[in-house]
What does this fold into?
Amino acid sequence: MINKTCMELKDIIIKRIKQEGPISFHDFMEMALYYPGIGYYTSPSEKFGTNGDFLTSCTISAAFGTMVAKQLEEIWNILGTETFTIAEFGAGNGSLCNDVLSYFKQDKNKFDNIHYCIIEKSSALRDKGKSLVAGNVSWYKSILELGELDGCIISNELLDNFAIHQVEMQNELMEIYVDYQNNSFTEVLKPASSQLKNYLQQLNINLPKGFRTEINLEAKEWLHDISQTLRKGYIITMDYGFQSEALYANHKSNGTLLCYYKHSINDNVYENIGRQDITSHVNFTALQNWGKQMGLEDCGFTNQANFLLALGFKDFFRKMPEPGTNIMQAALEEARVTRTLLLDLGLKIKVLIQKKGVKEKNLTGLKHQEEITFV
It folds into this structure.
């Protein structure tokens, strides 16, 4: 059934190309990931965890969600409000939501005054998620449905799944379009729009000839919606990515586009259409610059390893073991989680925190910061 569904999606894309001519890579990626009912994120198949295609930090251990909850608790104390709104984008299988709420259950008064909102545009993931999360959780298709809020907006490995524009520098900046000829997908170059050219100009990025990369304009729209909704509070963005200087370094001249299929990685976006995830790395310098334009202030930038360690990650495993616990197995599990969250993912995933309407910027999770280069 899955193969039939994916063939249908491939055929839908081919039909559109034959009717309209070549489509932008952005539109191809949007259809592959989000086409209603049969795109990768809109179909009912399992995406996350050992039974899916990839692991995320929150599916590896409750330690991740507990550290995020500790940062949220500090933010709540800074705001000094009776109630606290947490708005999470793209909650996946609900692991982060469940672990954050489990942490706050230790204080009944705080737990009863949390408004946890999940923003998920995929109806399939919304329907599935409602059966996986525990507690008083509200679901929304768009953050704009919430109105103004005081609290914290969080996203974990979200922006790397936004449909991107793929560009290549020739004599001028060109955009990648997708065609279908001789029974296969092919790529063609067309002059890039002024919007894409302005993106590079505003960040002072000069690409050498032959350099191919991605431009994530949907991240700007996402941040704009947040800036319109957040009245007072913080934004925590956790994702794969770099600052501009590293993202557009010479050794990344082929871009960062990758696909995840059954826990294997490939770079062939035209295979397994609708069955594999497609990702690209986030430009955190762009997020910071856009944020300034939208009235958001930067608190700091670090990697996931530094973020977790600053919040007491090591203490998570130092509790007295419950009766009957196999000490050796517990030690092996601690080593596995530590290696994965701090090394395998911890140095690749970055954390950017921005704020609005509050003075305090010295958050515990940012105690060990990476230097962020603003261009």
Summary: The mean pLDDT is 90. The CA atoms of residues 136 and 145 lie 18 Å apart. The first strand starts at residue 23 and ends at 24.
